[in-house]
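Reopening closed ticket. The problem is back. First fold of the pair:
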Amino acid sequence: MAKSKKNIIVFDFETDGLKDCQPVQIGAVVIEPMNLELIKGSEFCSMMKPIDINRKDYYDNHADCIKWHEFVKKYKTSTSHWSCPIPAGKNIRRFDLPIVNKLNDKYKIKTMFHPHHSVDLEDFTYYWLEFLNEGPISYSMDNLRIFFGLDTNEIAHDALGDARETAIIIQRFLRLHKSQANKIPFKNAFK
Protein backbone atom coordinates (compact mmCIF):
# COMPACT_ATOMS: atom_id res chain seq x y z
CA MET A 1 0.00 0.00 0.00
CA ALA A 2 1.51 3.31 -1.09
CA LYS A 3 1.77 5.84 1.72
CA SER A 4 3.63 9.09 1.41
CA LYS A 5 6.33 9.51 3.99
CA LYS A 6 7.60 12.65 2.32
CA ASN A 7 7.46 15.85 4.31
CA ILE A 8 5.33 18.65 2.89
CA ILE A 9 6.98 22.08 2.76
CA VAL A 10 4.49 24.92 2.51
CA PHE A 11 6.30 28.00 1.26
CA ASP A 12 5.70 31.44 -0.15
CA PHE A 13 7.80 33.97 -2.02
CA GLU A 14 7.23 37.68 -1.75
CA THR A 15 8.51 39.44 -4.85
CA ASP A 16 9.31 42.95 -5.99
CA GLY A 17 6.22 42.99 -8.19
CA LEU A 18 8.18 43.93 -11.27
CA LYS A 19 8.04 42.13 -14.59
CA ASP A 20 10.42 39.31 -13.64
CA CYS A 21 8.99 38.90 -10.09
CA GLN A 22 12.32 38.86 -8.31
CA PRO A 23 12.13 37.25 -4.85
CA VAL A 24 12.66 39.54 -1.87
CA GLN A 25 11.50 37.20 0.92
CA ILE A 26 10.78 33.52 1.38
CA GLY A 27 8.95 31.86 4.24
CA ALA A 28 8.22 28.18 4.87
CA VAL A 29 6.85 25.69 7.38
CA VAL A 30 6.89 21.88 7.23
CA ILE A 31 3.96 19.48 7.65
CA GLU A 32 4.67 15.92 8.78
CA PRO A 33 2.87 13.68 6.26
CA MET A 34 1.32 11.03 8.51
CA ASN A 35 -0.13 13.08 11.37
CA LEU A 36 -0.49 16.27 9.28
CA GLU A 37 0.94 18.43 12.08
CA LEU A 38 3.49 21.19 11.67
CA ILE A 39 6.96 19.99 12.60
CA LYS A 40 8.09 21.93 15.65
CA GLY A 41 10.89 24.35 14.84
CA SER A 42 10.47 23.91 11.09
CA GLU A 43 9.99 27.56 10.20
CA PHE A 44 12.22 29.25 7.67
CA CYS A 45 12.24 32.92 6.77
CA SER A 46 14.83 34.84 4.82
CA MET A 47 14.92 38.25 3.23
CA MET A 48 16.49 38.05 -0.21
CA LYS A 49 18.25 40.58 -2.34
CA PRO A 50 16.34 41.09 -5.57
CA ILE A 51 18.18 39.52 -8.44
CA ASP A 52 18.10 40.08 -12.14
CA ILE A 53 18.37 36.59 -13.56
CA ASN A 54 19.36 37.97 -16.96
CA ARG A 55 22.26 40.10 -15.64
CA LYS A 56 25.24 38.27 -14.18
CA ASP A 57 26.74 41.41 -12.60
CA TYR A 58 23.66 42.39 -10.54
CA TYR A 59 23.83 39.83 -7.75
CA ASP A 60 27.00 38.31 -6.41
CA ASN A 61 25.92 36.80 -3.10
CA HIS A 62 23.79 33.67 -3.27
CA ALA A 63 23.83 32.94 0.47
CA ASP A 64 20.04 33.31 0.72
CA CYS A 65 19.50 30.62 -1.91
CA ILE A 66 21.99 28.30 -0.23
CA LYS A 67 20.24 28.76 3.15
CA TRP A 68 16.91 27.96 1.49
CA HIS A 69 18.34 24.89 -0.24
CA GLU A 70 19.87 23.60 3.02
CA PHE A 71 16.56 24.10 4.83
CA VAL A 72 14.64 22.06 2.24
CA LYS A 73 17.35 19.39 2.08
CA LYS A 74 17.09 18.89 5.85
CA TYR A 75 13.56 17.51 5.34
CA LYS A 76 14.46 14.78 2.83
CA THR A 77 13.64 11.36 4.27
CA SER A 78 16.49 9.51 2.51
CA THR A 79 19.21 10.19 -0.06
CA SER A 80 16.95 9.36 -3.04
CA HIS A 81 15.47 12.24 -5.03
CA TRP A 82 12.14 10.40 -4.63
CA SER A 83 12.30 11.25 -0.92
CA CYS A 84 12.54 14.99 -1.50
CA PRO A 85 9.86 17.01 0.26
CA ILE A 86 6.60 17.73 -1.51
CA PRO A 87 6.25 21.44 -2.33
CA ALA A 88 3.02 23.06 -1.19
CA GLY A 89 1.50 26.51 -1.22
CA LYS A 90 -1.04 28.87 -2.74
CA ASN A 91 -0.68 29.07 -6.54
CA ILE A 92 2.63 27.26 -6.13
CA ARG A 93 2.78 25.60 -9.55
CA ARG A 94 2.30 28.81 -11.54
CA PHE A 95 4.18 31.27 -9.31
CA ASP A 96 6.49 29.94 -6.57
CA LEU A 97 7.89 26.79 -8.21
CA PRO A 98 8.95 28.65 -11.38
CA ILE A 99 10.91 31.03 -9.11
CA VAL A 100 12.53 28.05 -7.36
CA ASN A 101 13.45 26.58 -10.75
CA LYS A 102 15.01 29.87 -11.93
CA LEU A 103 17.06 30.12 -8.74
CA ASN A 104 18.11 26.47 -9.00
CA ASP A 105 19.26 27.03 -12.59
CA LYS A 106 21.11 30.21 -11.74
CA TYR A 107 23.01 28.70 -8.81
CA LYS A 108 23.39 25.17 -10.23
CA ILE A 109 21.34 23.67 -7.39
CA LYS A 110 19.87 20.22 -7.94
CA THR A 111 16.14 19.79 -7.71
CA MET A 112 15.06 20.26 -4.10
CA PHE A 113 11.51 18.97 -4.28
CA HIS A 114 9.78 15.76 -5.23
CA PRO A 115 9.86 15.37 -9.03
CA HIS A 116 6.13 14.63 -9.43
CA HIS A 117 4.02 15.60 -6.44
CA SER A 118 2.97 19.04 -5.27
CA VAL A 119 0.11 20.33 -3.14
CA ASP A 120 -1.49 23.51 -4.44
CA LEU A 121 -4.21 25.22 -2.41
CA GLU A 122 -5.67 26.33 -5.75
CA ASP A 123 -6.76 22.72 -6.38
CA PHE A 124 -8.45 22.30 -3.00
CA THR A 125 -10.30 25.58 -3.22
CA TYR A 126 -11.64 24.75 -6.66
CA TYR A 127 -12.58 21.14 -5.85
CA TRP A 128 -14.37 21.94 -2.61
CA LEU A 129 -15.55 25.55 -2.84
CA GLU A 130 -16.52 25.97 -6.48
CA PHE A 131 -19.79 24.10 -5.98
CA LEU A 132 -20.88 25.78 -2.74
CA ASN A 133 -24.02 27.89 -2.83
CA GLU A 134 -22.26 30.57 -0.80
CA GLY A 135 -18.55 30.28 -1.49
CA PRO A 136 -15.85 32.94 -1.19
CA ILE A 137 -15.94 36.09 -3.35
CA SER A 138 -12.74 34.91 -5.04
CA TYR A 139 -9.93 32.46 -4.36
CA SER A 140 -7.37 35.13 -3.45
CA MET A 141 -5.61 34.51 -0.16
CA ASP A 142 -7.10 37.70 1.28
CA ASN A 143 -10.63 36.46 0.50
CA LEU A 144 -9.87 32.93 1.70
CA ARG A 145 -8.70 34.35 5.06
CA ILE A 146 -12.07 36.08 5.44
CA PHE A 147 -14.09 33.12 4.17
CA PHE A 148 -12.43 30.62 6.51
CA GLY A 149 -12.50 33.03 9.44
CA LEU A 150 -8.74 32.94 9.88
CA ASP A 151 -7.74 35.17 12.73
CA THR A 152 -4.10 34.26 13.22
CA ASN A 153 -2.74 37.77 13.69
CA GLU A 154 -0.35 37.14 10.81
CA ILE A 155 0.75 40.02 8.63
CA ALA A 156 -0.68 39.53 5.15
CA HIS A 157 1.89 39.52 2.37
CA ASP A 158 4.69 38.53 4.70
CA ALA A 159 6.18 35.31 3.33
CA LEU A 160 6.32 33.44 6.64
CA GLY A 161 2.87 34.65 7.71
CA ASP A 162 1.38 33.64 4.37
CA ALA A 163 3.11 30.24 4.53
CA ARG A 164 1.74 29.63 8.05
CA GLU A 165 -1.82 30.55 7.06
CA THR A 166 -1.64 28.53 3.85
CA ALA A 167 -0.37 25.57 5.88
CA ILE A 168 -3.35 25.84 8.26
CA ILE A 169 -5.79 25.66 5.34
CA ILE A 170 -3.87 22.87 3.59
CA GLN A 171 -3.75 20.87 6.84
CA ARG A 172 -7.53 21.19 7.14
CA PHE A 173 -8.12 19.99 3.58
CA LEU A 174 -5.64 17.11 3.92
CA ARG A 175 -7.35 16.02 7.14
CA LEU A 176 -10.69 16.14 5.34
CA HIS A 177 -9.30 13.92 2.57
CA LYS A 178 -7.75 11.57 5.13
CA SER A 179 -11.05 11.26 7.03
CA GLN A 180 -13.01 10.46 3.87
CA ALA A 181 -10.51 8.31 1.95
CA ASN A 182 -11.53 4.96 3.47
CA LYS A 183 -15.25 5.75 3.26
CA ILE A 184 -15.29 6.01 -0.52
CA PRO A 185 -15.05 2.77 -2.55
CA PHE A 186 -12.24 3.56 -4.98
CA LYS A 187 -11.01 0.01 -5.58
CA ASN A 188 -12.85 -1.59 -8.50
CA ALA A 189 -15.01 1.55 -8.78
CA PHE A 190 -15.41 1.05 -12.54
CA LYS A 191 -16.40 -2.62 -12.52
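Second fold of the pair, where the issue appears:
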Amino acid sequence: MQESSHRKGLILAAGYGSRLEGVSVVTDFKPLTPIAGKPLIFRTIESLEKAGCSGIVIVLGHGYKEIEEAILTKYEGNIPLEFVFNSQFELSNGVSVLAAETVLTDTFIMTMADHILGDSLMEIAGNYIPAEQGAALLVDYKIDTIFDMDDATKVLSDDGRIVSIGKQITDYNCIDTGVFVCTKGLLVSLNKYYKLHGDTSISDGVQELSSTGRMVTVDIGDGFWQDVDTPEMLAYAEKVLGLDN
Protein backbone atom coordinates (compact mmCIF):
# COMPACT_ATOMS: atom_id res chain seq x y z
CA MET A 1 0.00 0.00 0.00
CA GLN A 2 1.45 3.29 -1.07
CA GLU A 3 2.58 5.56 1.77
CA SER A 4 0.42 3.62 4.25
CA SER A 5 3.33 3.04 6.65
CA HIS A 6 3.52 6.81 7.17
CA ARG A 7 -0.16 7.21 8.02
CA LYS A 8 -1.95 7.15 11.31
CA GLY A 9 -5.53 6.09 11.74
CA LEU A 10 -7.95 8.33 13.59
CA ILE A 11 -10.99 6.93 15.42
CA LEU A 12 -13.63 9.29 16.75
CA ALA A 13 -15.25 7.78 19.83
CA ALA A 14 -16.11 10.74 22.07
CA GLY A 15 -19.90 10.95 21.88
CA TYR A 16 -22.60 9.74 24.25
CA GLY A 17 -23.96 7.04 21.92
CA SER A 18 -27.30 7.42 23.68
CA ARG A 19 -29.34 5.63 21.01
CA LEU A 20 -27.58 2.36 21.84
CA GLU A 21 -27.89 2.81 25.59
CA GLY A 22 -29.20 -0.29 27.31
CA VAL A 23 -28.82 -2.70 24.38
CA SER A 24 -25.78 -4.46 25.86
CA VAL A 25 -25.68 -6.37 29.13
CA VAL A 26 -21.89 -5.99 29.36
CA THR A 27 -21.37 -2.23 28.86
CA ASP A 28 -23.11 1.13 28.74
CA PHE A 29 -20.47 2.60 26.43
CA LYS A 30 -21.12 2.55 22.71
CA PRO A 31 -17.51 1.88 21.54
CA LEU A 32 -17.38 -1.22 23.76
CA THR A 33 -20.74 -2.58 22.60
CA PRO A 34 -20.19 -6.08 21.16
CA ILE A 35 -21.23 -6.85 17.60
CA ALA A 36 -21.27 -10.59 16.92
CA GLY A 37 -19.12 -11.02 20.03
CA LYS A 38 -16.50 -8.34 19.32
CA PRO A 39 -16.63 -4.74 20.61
CA LEU A 40 -17.19 -2.08 17.97
CA ILE A 41 -13.94 -0.26 18.76
CA PHE A 42 -11.86 -3.39 18.20
CA ARG A 43 -13.48 -3.95 14.83
CA THR A 44 -12.55 -0.38 13.90
CA ILE A 45 -8.96 -0.81 15.10
CA GLU A 46 -8.63 -3.98 13.00
CA SER A 47 -10.01 -2.16 9.96
CA LEU A 48 -7.38 0.57 10.24
CA GLU A 49 -4.70 -2.07 10.66
CA LYS A 50 -5.87 -3.61 7.39
CA ALA A 51 -5.56 -0.19 5.76
CA GLY A 52 -1.86 -0.22 6.69
CA CYS A 53 -1.82 2.48 9.36
CA SER A 54 1.37 2.76 11.41
CA GLY A 55 -0.45 3.88 14.54
CA ILE A 56 -3.95 4.71 15.70
CA VAL A 57 -5.21 7.77 17.56
CA ILE A 58 -8.46 7.28 19.48
CA VAL A 59 -10.37 10.40 20.55
CA LEU A 60 -12.47 9.79 23.64
CA GLY A 61 -14.88 11.93 25.63
CA HIS A 62 -17.87 10.43 27.44
CA GLY A 63 -16.60 7.59 29.65
CA TYR A 64 -13.04 8.12 28.48
CA LYS A 65 -11.32 6.58 31.52
CA GLU A 66 -13.41 3.41 31.44
CA ILE A 67 -13.16 3.03 27.66
CA GLU A 68 -9.39 3.62 27.57
CA GLU A 69 -8.83 1.12 30.37
CA ALA A 70 -11.00 -1.50 28.66
CA ILE A 71 -9.16 -1.08 25.36
CA LEU A 72 -5.69 -1.25 26.93
CA THR A 73 -6.69 -4.29 28.99
CA LYS A 74 -8.07 -6.30 26.07
CA TYR A 75 -6.09 -5.10 23.04
CA GLU A 76 -3.80 -7.83 21.70
CA GLY A 77 -2.60 -6.21 18.48
CA ASN A 78 0.82 -4.82 17.66
CA ILE A 79 -0.06 -1.38 16.30
CA PRO A 80 0.62 1.51 18.72
CA LEU A 81 -2.49 3.12 20.20
CA GLU A 82 -2.64 6.74 21.34
CA PHE A 83 -5.52 8.29 23.28
CA VAL A 84 -6.72 11.88 23.15
CA PHE A 85 -9.37 13.35 25.45
CA ASN A 86 -11.84 15.79 23.90
CA SER A 87 -13.12 17.89 26.80
CA GLN A 88 -15.76 19.42 24.50
CA PHE A 89 -17.27 16.08 23.51
CA GLU A 90 -20.78 17.48 23.79
CA LEU A 91 -20.08 19.54 20.66
CA SER A 92 -20.07 18.26 17.06
CA ASN A 93 -17.71 15.56 15.80
CA GLY A 94 -15.40 17.98 14.00
CA VAL A 95 -14.21 19.21 17.40
CA SER A 96 -12.96 15.69 18.12
CA VAL A 97 -10.86 15.83 14.97
CA LEU A 98 -9.34 19.13 16.09
CA ALA A 99 -8.58 17.64 19.52
CA ALA A 100 -6.17 15.22 17.80
CA GLU A 101 -4.59 17.85 15.54
CA THR A 102 -1.14 17.87 17.17
CA VAL A 103 -0.62 14.09 17.01
CA LEU A 104 -1.77 13.36 13.45
CA THR A 105 0.52 12.63 10.54
CA ASP A 106 0.40 14.73 7.38
CA THR A 107 -1.87 12.10 5.85
CA PHE A 108 -4.28 10.09 7.98
CA ILE A 109 -7.28 7.78 7.62
CA MET A 110 -10.24 8.84 9.70
CA THR A 111 -13.34 6.93 10.71
CA MET A 112 -15.86 6.56 13.53
CA ALA A 113 -15.90 3.98 16.32
CA ASP A 114 -19.42 2.89 15.39
CA HIS A 115 -18.80 1.85 11.77
CA ILE A 116 -18.25 -1.71 10.60
CA LEU A 117 -16.01 -1.64 7.55
CA GLY A 118 -15.29 -4.34 4.99
CA ASP A 119 -11.76 -5.30 3.98
CA SER A 120 -12.07 -4.17 0.37
CA LEU A 121 -13.24 -0.71 1.49
CA MET A 122 -10.23 -0.36 3.77
CA GLU A 123 -7.90 -1.48 1.00
CA ILE A 124 -9.22 1.39 -1.11
CA ALA A 125 -8.57 3.79 1.77
CA GLY A 126 -5.09 2.40 2.36
CA ASN A 127 -4.07 2.79 -1.27
CA TYR A 128 -5.57 6.22 -1.91
CA ILE A 129 -3.26 9.24 -2.06
CA PRO A 130 -5.06 12.56 -1.51
CA ALA A 131 -4.10 15.77 -3.27
CA GLU A 132 -1.88 18.24 -1.45
CA GLN A 133 -3.93 19.93 1.31
CA GLY A 134 -6.92 17.91 0.12
CA ALA A 135 -9.03 15.03 1.37
CA ALA A 136 -11.24 12.24 0.08
CA LEU A 137 -14.49 10.79 1.37
CA LEU A 138 -15.27 7.18 0.53
CA VAL A 139 -18.85 7.01 -0.70
CA ASP A 140 -21.38 4.33 -1.53
CA TYR A 141 -23.45 4.64 -4.71
CA LYS A 142 -25.46 1.51 -3.83
CA ILE A 143 -28.25 3.62 -2.38
CA ASP A 144 -30.82 0.83 -2.55
CA THR A 145 -28.73 -1.24 -0.11
CA ILE A 146 -28.62 1.38 2.67
CA PHE A 147 -30.35 0.04 5.80
CA ASP A 148 -31.54 3.35 7.28
CA MET A 149 -31.70 6.17 4.74
CA ASP A 150 -33.20 8.62 7.21
CA ASP A 151 -30.07 8.40 9.36
CA ALA A 152 -27.58 8.32 6.47
CA THR A 153 -25.42 11.30 5.57
CA LYS A 154 -26.21 12.04 1.93
CA VAL A 155 -23.73 13.36 -0.60
CA LEU A 156 -24.15 15.00 -3.97
CA SER A 157 -21.02 14.27 -5.98
CA ASP A 158 -20.35 15.69 -9.43
CA ASP A 159 -17.42 14.25 -11.36
CA GLY A 160 -15.77 13.17 -8.12
CA ARG A 161 -16.26 16.52 -6.37
CA ILE A 162 -18.56 17.08 -3.41
CA VAL A 163 -21.28 19.57 -4.21
CA SER A 164 -23.21 19.20 -0.94
CA ILE A 165 -23.33 16.92 2.08
CA GLY A 166 -25.75 16.43 4.98
CA LYS A 167 -28.43 14.20 6.44
CA GLN A 168 -31.22 16.51 5.33
CA ILE A 169 -30.27 17.28 1.71
CA THR A 170 -32.76 16.01 -0.85
CA ASP A 171 -30.57 16.07 -3.96
CA TYR A 172 -27.91 13.36 -3.60
CA ASN A 173 -26.43 10.43 -5.50
CA CYS A 174 -24.28 8.62 -2.94
CA ILE A 175 -23.86 8.03 0.81
CA ASP A 176 -21.07 8.97 3.21
CA THR A 177 -19.44 5.77 4.56
CA GLY A 178 -17.70 7.58 7.42
CA VAL A 179 -14.20 6.83 6.05
CA PHE A 180 -11.92 9.68 5.00
CA VAL A 181 -8.37 9.87 3.70
CA CYS A 182 -7.18 13.28 4.84
CA THR A 183 -4.34 15.72 4.82
CA LYS A 184 -4.11 18.55 7.29
CA GLY A 185 -6.02 20.65 4.77
CA LEU A 186 -9.18 19.28 6.39
CA LEU A 187 -7.96 20.52 9.76
CA VAL A 188 -7.49 23.99 8.29
CA SER A 189 -11.11 23.98 7.11
CA LEU A 190 -12.41 22.68 10.44
CA ASN A 191 -10.44 25.31 12.33
CA LYS A 192 -11.78 28.06 10.09
CA TYR A 193 -15.39 27.03 10.70
CA TYR A 194 -14.81 26.47 14.43
CA LYS A 195 -13.34 29.95 14.94
CA LEU A 196 -16.38 31.50 13.27
CA HIS A 197 -19.07 29.42 14.98
CA GLY A 198 -17.61 27.93 18.17
CA ASP A 199 -18.43 24.43 16.91
CA THR A 200 -17.89 22.38 13.77
CA SER A 201 -19.04 19.08 12.36
CA ILE A 202 -16.97 17.06 9.92
CA SER A 203 -19.58 17.89 7.27
CA ASP A 204 -18.94 21.61 7.89
CA GLY A 205 -15.24 21.09 7.26
CA VAL A 206 -15.91 18.96 4.20
CA GLN A 207 -18.19 21.61 2.73
CA GLU A 208 -15.59 24.29 3.40
CA LEU A 209 -12.81 22.24 1.79
CA SER A 210 -15.12 21.42 -1.12
CA SER A 211 -15.50 25.14 -1.83
CA THR A 212 -11.80 25.20 -2.69
CA GLY A 213 -12.04 22.15 -4.99
CA ARG A 214 -9.83 20.02 -2.75
CA MET A 215 -12.48 17.62 -1.38
CA VAL A 216 -13.23 14.59 -3.56
CA THR A 217 -15.24 11.39 -3.41
CA VAL A 218 -13.97 7.85 -3.92
CA ASP A 219 -16.41 5.11 -4.92
CA ILE A 220 -16.22 1.98 -2.74
CA GLY A 221 -17.79 -0.17 -5.47
CA ASP A 222 -18.99 -3.44 -3.97
CA GLY A 223 -17.41 -2.63 -0.61
CA PHE A 224 -19.40 -3.20 2.60
CA TRP A 225 -19.95 -0.87 5.54
CA GLN A 226 -22.61 -0.37 8.18
CA ASP A 227 -23.17 2.41 10.68
CA VAL A 228 -24.31 1.15 14.10
CA ASP A 229 -26.31 3.92 15.76
CA THR A 230 -29.50 2.17 16.86
CA PRO A 231 -30.60 -1.26 18.13
CA GLU A 232 -32.07 -1.94 14.68
CA MET A 233 -28.75 -1.16 12.99
CA LEU A 234 -26.95 -3.36 15.49
CA ALA A 235 -29.29 -6.29 14.77
CA TYR A 236 -28.84 -5.80 11.02
CA ALA A 237 -25.05 -5.65 11.33
CA GLU A 238 -24.99 -8.87 13.35
CA LYS A 239 -27.18 -10.55 10.75
CA VAL A 240 -24.86 -9.49 7.92
CA LEU A 241 -21.74 -10.56 9.83
CA GLY A 242 -23.39 -13.86 10.61
CA LEU A 243 -24.08 -14.44 6.94
CA ASP A 244 -20.45 -13.59 6.12
CA ASN A 245 -18.98 -15.97 8.69
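Update: turned out to be a display glitch only; the data is intact. The chain has a mean pLDDT of 92. The two ends are 26 Å apart (CA to CA). Please close again.
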